[in-house]
TrEMBL record:
It comes from the Bacteria. This is DUF2062 domain-containing protein. Keywords: Membrane, Transmembrane, Transmembrane helix. The keyword Iron does not apply. The chain crosses the membrane at residues 45-71, 83-106, 144-168. The keyword DNA-binding does not apply. Residues 24-175 form the DUF2062 domain. It comes from Aquirhabdus parva.
């Protein structure tokens, strides 16, 4: 069952409630619905975790926790999925979102030299002398980025939700067929003896 696999990696509500600062949430954090491992809870957590991962703010985990509590889906999974966006994946996420937004808004896409100048400017300002940063002339549309982020988040969240439901159903049907085969084999063995 997928429950056994998932339960192996998710902490217990008591362990989470014992963490410092969690007592402020009160009894909400120990609500059994936030810790259920069923198709609805896991697929909902997949949706909200992925959507919150695409929010370009440092408080993604808090937003995912609030969504999990509000929609009563699996809390640990929705928080864990926010780590899809990390320092290694953030640049591709932002670039693909800007591509989607620029197509919708009809604004020109950034070419490779402009991206190279942006990366050089960011690295020199972070690790070197900011006075020697490479000046860049580009038109960046924030609206295109935000709309692209929203569209990408909702579409990928919906795909994740649907995939979890389909995989869950496939796993349950497969287990049911295996049990039917075992029962049939058992009956045949009983008839022979």
């Amino acid at each position: 069952m997928p429950k056994k696999f998932i339960r192996r990696y998710i902490p217990t509500p008591e362990r989470i409630a014992a963490l410092p600062g969690i007592h402020r949430l009160g009894s909400r954090i120990t609500d059994p619905n936030l810790w259920h491992i069923n198709r609805r809870s896991i697929s909902g957590a997949m949706f909200w975790g992925i959507v919150c991962a695409w929010i370009p703010l440092p408080s993604q985990m808090l937003i995912a926790a609030a969504c999990a509590i509000l929609f009563r889906v699996n809390l640990p999974l929705s928080i864990a999925l926010t780590w899809i966006s990390n320092p290694f994946t953030m640049l591709p996420i932002l670039y693909s979102s800007y591509c989607i937004g620029s197509l919708i808004f009809g604004v020109p896409m950034l070419d490779i030299t402009q991206i190279k100048h942006i990366i050089i400017q960011l690295t020199t300002s972070l690790f070197g002398d900011s006075a020697s940063a490479v000046p860049t002339q580009y038109h960046f549309n924030l609206g295109a980025l935000l709309v692209g982020l929203l569209i990408e988040a909702v579409v990928l969240g919906a795909i994740g939700n649907i995939l979890v439901k389909l995989l869950w159903r496939w796993h349950v049907v497969r287990d049911l067929r295996e049990r039917q085969i075992q029962r049939k084999q058992y009956r045949q063995d009983q008839e022979k003896s």
